[in-house]
Task: structure prediction
Amino acid sequence: MKKKMMGGLLSLSLVGMALSGCGAAPAKEQGDSNAAAPAPAKGEPTQLVISTWGFSDDFFKKEVYAPFEKEHNVKIVLEIGNNAERLNKVRQGSSSVDLIYLSDYYAQQGIEAGIFEKIDRSRIPNLKDIYDVAKAPLGEDYGPAYTIGQLGIAYSPKAAGKDIKSWSDLWSPELAKKLTIPNITSTSGPMMLDMASLAAGSTSFDADKAFGKMKELNKSVVKYYGQTSEFVNMFAQGEIAAGPIMEMYMKDVKAAVPDAKFVSPTEGGYAIMNTVNIVKGSKNKQLAEDFINWHLSKEVQEKSAKAKVDSPVNTTLQLSGDDTQGITYGKDVVGKLRKLDMKFVNQNLKAWIDRWNKEVAQ
Result:
């Protein structure tokens, strides 16, 4: 198959697919975040606008949104789309969003653009129960990660002709013309550069070694994918035998190829964090903080984990057996994940994309 590069910034998620949009709520005036919202008429619910991806919509409406609406007399309105398009709407002021869910990669861009409120951590008591790495992934002033997934390797032992244990195994001759790799413009693209630097033997990130190693891998790559559906389709059709993917998508991969395995490489899988932040100018800042606290609660986190919707960050959960399969679970697992410095990534991404297009995906 001809190698292709996918344009635009995409997310794999927690990460990655462009989702169909829905009508946006009417725009509201931006103003002082501490100003009180106009008091609703007696019995009239307050509108809370949430920007999110839209996956597992039925689950969220029933298990996350409906109980909060009932408890707080709230009407939740959703703005749906991928990371890039939703972030751009808020940047441009064409959105009435109170809360926005983004991968940490895009959330860092939002911080640098100055579009998020600083949260009051004293109003989010459930923060004390989540993994330390999730409490303030982008700084104490900003929102937590409500889920942490991992990027590892999915492969078919039969098609690959070998067991895969390490990132460096992707360079094995058995995988020639059997491999797919995330596009540099996807959320996990920069992780591929870090992975290549590791495989080249560098203990700290070395861009020259990373690009050199990726250029070596190019001959084995069938396609640089931008959407998880592409990975699953190629796997199902026998076009590929292996490739990096988020663990949460293994249920789709295994449905297509029953003998598929997921491995967290010996060097460590990569943490992919989805964050929640309050948009600057929201008239419902305290209500938004209440919602963040609710999403971090044991009740919501446990239901999300058991439904295989999101990997939990709340450490009070006690899962076992099948409930732990297909999610990133446990302090030991999360503690071994590699985490990129998203500020460093954003500072260098444009140059990396240009170099990737010239040197790697030719």
Q: What stands out?
A: The first helix runs from residue 57 to 72. The radius of gyration is 21 Å. The beta strands are 46-52, 74-80, 99-103, 145-155, 179-182, 221-225, 242-246, 261-263, 270-278. Confidence is low (pLDDT under 50) at residues 1-37.
